[in-house]
Design goal:
Order of helices and strands: EEHHE
Structural class: alpha+beta
Radius of gyration: 15 Å
Number of domains: 1
Strand order of the largest sheet: 1-2-3
Distance between the termini: 22 Å
Oligomer: single chain
Number of strands: 3
Number of helices: 2
Strand content: 5-15%
Length: 92
């Protein structure tokens, strides 16, 4: 793949986002959007981790899980993910 791909997630982004330097010879996956949609193990952690109980203690039980992502910082690649909106990645 030469650009972000995969079915859109709940926030409209492609599932997999590549760094600008991505190529078949040097893959540069930089983000997986909503991994909980494709991994039951990841969803279980998001729903049952100790942090969920801590959030409940801090702000109460009315918390809704909307989406998640995994940002990858691969060695030797410029796969850093900026904190602000990115023109090629859709809405932040």
């Amino acid at each position: 793949h030469a650009k972000p791909f995969g079915p859109p997630t709940i926030d409209g982004r492609p599932r997999f986002d590549m760094g600008a330097e991505h190529s078949a010879e040097h893959p540069a996956l930089r983000r997986i959007n909503n991994p909980s949609d494709i991994s039951q193990a990841y969803l279980d952690v998001m729903r049952n981790a100790a942090s969920v109980d801590m959030i409940d203690d801090l702000i109460g039980p009315n918390v809704k899980f909307h989406h998640c992502k995994i940002n990858l910082k691969l060695p030797g690649l410029d796969t850093a993910v900026c904190a602000g909106p990115q023109p090629d990645a859709g809405p932040e």
